[in-house]
Amino acid sequence: MSHLLEVNHLQTHFKTPDGILRAVNGVSFTVDAGETLAIVGESGSGKSVTSMSILGLVSDPGKVVGGEILFEGKNLLRLTKKEYRNMRGKAISVIFQEPMTSLNPIFTVGFQISEVLRTHYKLNRKAAKQRAIEMLDTVGIANAEKVYARYPHQLSGGMRQRVMIAIALVCQPKLLIADEPTTALDVTIQAQILELIQKLAKEQNTGVILITHDLGVVAEMADKVAVMYGGEIVEHASVEQIFHRPSHPYTQGLLASLPKIHEDEQRLYSLPGTVPNLLESSEGCTFAPRCKFASEACLQSKPRLALQGEQHWVSCLKAEEVRG
Amino acid sequence: MGQYLVRMLLQVVPVMFLISIIVFVLVHVTGDPVNLMLPETATEEDREILRAALGLDQPLYQQYFVYIKNVLQGDFGNSFHYGEPALPLVLERLPATFELAAVAMLIGIVIAVPCGMISAVKRNTVLDVIISFLSVIGKAMPNFWMGIMLILLFSVSLGLFPVSGRGGVEHIVLPAFTIGIGLAAQMTRLIRSNMLEILSQDYIRTARSKGLREVLVVGRHAFRNGLIPVVTIMSLQFTSLIGGTLVTETVFAWPGLGQLLVTSVNMRDMAVVQAAVFIIALVVIVCNMLTDVVYRYLDPRIKYN
Amino acid sequence: MEQQIKKRKTTLWSLLWNSKLGSLGAIIVLFVVLVAIFAPWIAPYDPAALDPIKRLKPPFWMEGSLPEHLLGTDNLGRDILSRLIYGSRVSLIVGVGAVLVSGLVGTLLGLLAGYYGKWSNILIMRTADAFHAIPSLLLMLVMLAVVGPGLTTLIFVIGLTNWVSYARVVRGEVLSIKERDFVRAARAAGASNARMLFKHILPNIMSTFIVLSGMNVATTILMESSLSFLGLGIKPPDVSWGTMLSDGKQYIATSWWVSTFPGLAITITVLGVIFLGDWLRDVLDPRMKAND
After folding, report:
1. Which residues in chain A have Cβ-Cβ distances shorter than 8 Å to B301?
2. Are residues A58 and A105 in the same domain?
3. Which terminal CB of chain A, N or C, has fewer other CB atoms within 10 Å?
4. Helix, strand or coil for residue B194?
């Protein structure tokens, strides 16, 4: 059976005066219809560049230089500009992090929603408006008709993100990329927005790639998790396995940095060190300099993703020791 | 709207007040107006008589009050060259200057907006470098020399346009382009950097992610946002527009306010000079207010906040 | 991450491009300065020497030219090359002189407004607003109508019109510096006002001052030429490129060279100053870098 989305050995590099920056370096994963894959990692780990690569929107001086992105069996990297454009917003949509700045301030939200419909379905003004108002209603905006004529700055952050969701889902895409969709929102609104995304995705049987650094969000939403570090996936497993049997020291570190409500001690664990410099290609494991398990061997040879249990992939020489 | 107008007026009054003081000080304190009005051969007696007639033997603050009272009534005194009240002389020149300034601004925008946008969209390409270079040269060229070179090329060599005067469309082409090219040089770079900033905004990324054609991303989403600062950029050019008309009208013998002012300064016709300065300052201020109104119209964020 | 990379790429490009232009600017400016200083030795003729017989002779490559007048002669038979060489003096003297005047006045007023605040701040900044609202050329015309043309008056007239930008920048800078720790500490330690100004605040605004002046010299040279062109700037026997142009304008139909060369001289000089100024700005004050 073919997957909705299959990414194989994706490589996205940025040419810089100081050398080639391997922002995404051989990443592979799959997403099925109705399934949610969470991509987790610190900022700079390459998770956003991965999503922009799928959308075909990596901007200069970045370029997808290797691998394939199979969407319903078709390699997106072989599409013409026009074919790719016709996919965007229709078959593959995206919700960005900042609802504040992601909406164009000088157009009404109604215009910005119906614009997608008119682009992809050649609907006339009236029909597009009708459908846009329905969509506003669907994403839980009361008074949809009124809000249609509002400008983004007249709406609250949560409302704006609902509008972004409406824009993304109005064409009933098969794949939705949600790039940190709730980071900029209040905690109380975060849950509502996540629920909304989850509900609509289930209804439309949409595959979701959820990009986040918030493991709480992952626990709530995801079916599968890919942990990215330094442009590579270091662990890939079902959400249960990630939380119960984390096998990469980096994943463990991320989990340890979650505040634990049950424990008396409220201290936050934070990972020592900083994200690696992707300009230098290291011989060994990219995480080794920050890893407490690292040995001589880790600095010398690069680990590969290997099966460590059912559908549980880890790229660590010491995975067994790490799991304990 | 009413409140807004009141607030605007509150800004205009102190500026005009200060301008009146500056002009008053210059004319009445720095130079002796009697000296400016009488020929150098006049006797001391003549001077005294004129001084008393003009109230110049009064204390300064009283002179200022009289002066302001007259100015408010539109009385700037008589032009000694034309022997007529100065204000009507100035006002009848206004239409010609407005015509020239408007066409010049239009030309400036028509050149600068596309050039600035192309420069931004194609930045760091050969095209961008060429446009940037041309705009620097435009900035470095004195306005009047540009005018003379246009005359040399289009009137003397090609015989396409008349050298001077005001009349049909063919008369306005060269002076308007002279000023317009200068304005375009000033504005292109500003529009470029402002467009670059807009192109890096999140909503541009959103527009692309919707599957819009790049033409629409730039032409619709970036352009409309880019227009807002263009209005500000335009208003920043009003002063160089005025400067441009002053000089260019002289080059092309365009019968406008600038030409009148320059000849009056040369002849020390102070009544006309003062009237012209007040009118030009007023026009600049009104233009700036209009810009503000247009700005509000273009940017919904201001309208509602 | 993408942002960061983009920036890097642009700065490399612009550094390359700018430094090339920067050195070109420096060469042009240096050349003009040398010409101005050594004018009496370089110029083949007295710039004011009339020769009614050799009127309006074309430059050397054209028919009817005279070998002793490389760039031809003007309507009074004066040697254009010599006049160009002497004209550079006026451009530079006015350019630098007026900028010094406006720099001095503006810095003083800006310091006053920023350092003492209160009524002096209100008075000075309101006056600055009013100055800003009037086109500077207009103000200069009024002043020149009162005091009459001439080299010294021109320097002061242009200088006194352009102080606003200095005052604003200096005031802003003073306000921000005043809040910095070392100034507060110095004040707490009982440093006198004068000491504060000269020891702590002035050195800090030096680079801003230089950057502003670079741009102002270019506009001042253009202003001087405009005013001279209008007959309100330099008076004979002083030679200005602007007056040369206004002389040449009348003969444009027959003798293009009379008005072409001085215009070229102005443009190239101003270009040099702009390039050098931009380069100075990039080097001294990265904050003011154009938005790219």
Report:
1. 105-106, 151, 153
2. no
3. N
4. helix
DSSP code for B85: B
Give residue limits of the domains in chain C. Answer: 72-290
Cα end-to-end distance, chain C, whole Å:
17
More confident position, B8 or A36: A36
Instruction: Report the amino acid identity of residue B14.
Output: P
Does B196 touch chain A if contact means CB atoms closer than 8 Å?
A: no
Range of the domain at A77: 1-82+175-192+201-259
Interface subset of B 141-200, CB within 8 angstroms of C = 141-145, 148-149, 151-152, 156, 189, 192-194, 196-197, 200
CA distance A17 to chain C (A): 7
Residues of B numbered 20-39 whose beta carbons fall under 8 angstroms of chain C's beta carbons: which are they? Answer: 22-23, 26-27, 30-31, 36
C72-290 domain in CATH 3.30.720.200?
no
pLDDT in tens, A128-144: 899 999 888 888 888 88
Asked whether residue B111 falls in the same domain as residue B223, the answer is yes
Q: What is the DSSP letter of C198?
A: I
Domain of residue B60 covers 2-81
A206 shares its domain with A77: yes
- What's the pLDDT band for B242 if we cut at 50, 70, 90? confident
Q: What is the mean pLDDT of residues A198-215?
A: 88
**pTM for the whole thing?**
0.78
Return all residues near B180 (Cβ < 8 A) that are at least 6 apart: B103, B104, B105, B106, B107, B108, B111
Contacts with A115 from chain B: Cβ below 8 Å: 210, 212
Nearest CA in chain C to A63: C2
Residue type, C185: A
The pLDDT of residue A260 is 56
What pLDDT, in 10s, does the model give residues A184-195?
778 788 888 888
On whether any CB of chain B is under 8 Å from the CB of C114, the answer is no
Q: Which positions in chain C touch B8 (Cβ < 8 Å)?
A: none
Q: What are phi and psi of C145, to 5 degrees?
A: -60, -35
